[in-house]
Every structure is written in structure tokens, then in C-alpha cells.
């Protein structure tokens, strides 16, 4: 799954420091706080690769690495504030990730994902569609953003949906909504703070 567990969204809150820029991904990284209490730290880990460490509390969380900050290629649980390699999942796309569409309004892509967890291999159908550019505010910080609606299907009737807001100025995607396949989004997550300093 691309992210685990509208057309225009106004994000409220206060910035902890100067508004982050894309250069911060290579130095301190970027922290964001969500209305569900989670804190996510974004860092660049390689060419076109961004990692996200999301902590739900002091001990439990989730880590992932994504191509362009959008397409997850690797993820695992965080236990006792440490990544748990035994829970690692590797996601393979049917085409080289370099050929997947970037966050461009109107672009879309769909195809099967092969997910390997230990010795178990499963397949999910995945689709993503990008919407029009909008202005996205987090406290005093303002960014251009492109919404991306995603669908995951483990079989013909079972699946989930998610909405990302891709901040083009930063090269990161915020997870802002989720739901079950065939219904509207039921859970929404408001980003309340963004910073280049660790959030507690």
C-alpha cells in the first residue's frame, strides 16, 4: 500500500520555524505534525528517493521510502522507536519506477504491484490520479500542491483509498485522507505544523 495506517483544503496551525524548503530534505529534513497526533520526518535518501518516519507515539510508528516522494518502494513497522527489519515489505512495480508519472495535473497510472514480505509474495492493483494545482497552507507557510487520489485493491471487492497532497515546492507528499473502496473518504488528517526542527 502506498500509505498506511478536498479539492481545496485549508490547513490551519502555526509554523515552528521558518518555512521549510526543498534544500532542507538534504540537511535537517522536514517535520510535520498531523491532527491525529502523529509526527512525520521526511529526508532525502538518494536520487529521487524520500524517506518518511511517522511516529504515532514515542515508541510505535511506520517508516517508508518512496520514489519521487509518492510511490512507495519499501516500508516497515517502527517498534520501540526502531525500524523493525522483520516487518519489511518490498514493493515492485511492473515498469521501472523512473517511468512512473510524476505529480502533474491530469496524469494517471494504474497497474499491479508485487509486494514481498519475508517469503510471502502478494499482488495488489493500484491506481493514482493527479488533480489540479492548488495553494496549500500550513500555518504561515504556503506551498503549491497537487492532490493525488489513490486506490488499492487486494481483490475485486476489497480495497482502500487514500488522498495525498504533493507539495511541489518540497518534493514530499502529505497523507490527508483515507477510506474504503467504493465509498467517499471517511478519515481526514489535517497538517497543523511544519518545521525544519524536531517536533515533540
Could you give a short description of this structure?
The chain has no helices and 15 strands. It is mostly beta strands and 200 residues long.
Give the radius of gyration. Answer: 16 Å
Q: Low-confidence runs (pLDDT<50, min 5 residues)? A: 1-16
Q: Count of DSSP E strands?
A: 15
- End-to-end Cα distance, whole Å, is 27 Å
Structural class: mainly beta
* Overall pLDDT: 90
**Fraction of residues in β-strands:** over 45%
Helix fraction, binned, reads: under 10%
User: How do the SSEs run, as a string of H and E?
Assistant: EEEEEEEEEEEEEEE
Give a short account of the largest sheet: 15 strands, antiparallel
Helix count equals: 0
Can you tell me the overall shape? globular
Describe the structure.
The protein is mainly β and 200 residues long. Helix content is 0%, strand content 53%.
Features:
15-stranded antiparallel β-sheet, mainly beta, disordered N terminus, single chain, 15 strands
Amino acid at each position: 500500500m502506498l500509505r498506511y495506517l478536498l479539492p481545496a483544503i485549508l490547513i490551519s496551525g502555526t509554523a515552528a520555524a521558518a518555512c521549510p524548503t526543498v534544500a532542507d530534505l538534504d540537511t535537517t529534513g522536514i517535520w510535520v505534525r498531523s491532527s491525529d497526533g502523529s509526527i512525520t520526518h521526511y529526508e532525502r535518501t538518494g536520487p529521487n528517493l524520500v524517506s518518511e518516519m511517522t511516529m504515532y507515539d514515542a515508541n510505535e510508528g511506520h517508516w517508508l521510502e518512496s520514489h519521487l516522494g509518492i510511490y512507495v518502494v519499501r516500508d516497515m513497522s517502527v517498534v520501540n522507536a526502531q525500524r523493525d527489519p522483520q516487518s519489511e515489505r518490498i514493493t515492485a512495480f511492473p515498469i521501472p519506477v523512473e517511468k512512473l508519472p510524476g505529480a502533474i495535473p491530469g496524469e494517471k497510472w494504474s497497474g499491479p504491484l508485487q509486494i514481498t514480505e519475508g517469503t510471502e509474495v502478494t499482488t495488489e492493483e493500484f491506481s493514482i490520479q493527479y488533480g489540479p494545482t492548488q495553494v496549500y497552507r500550513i500555518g504561515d507557510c504556503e506551498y503549491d500542491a497537487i492532490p493525488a487520489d489513490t486506490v488499492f485493491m487486494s481483490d475485486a471487492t476489497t480495497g482502500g483509498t487514500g488522498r495525498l497532497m504533493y507539495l511541489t515546492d518540497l518534493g514530499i507528499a502529505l497523507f490527508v485522507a483515507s477510506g474504503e473502496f467504493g465509498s467517499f473518504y471517511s478519515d481526514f488528517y489535517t497538517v497543523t505544523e511544519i518545521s525544519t526542527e524536531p517536533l515533540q
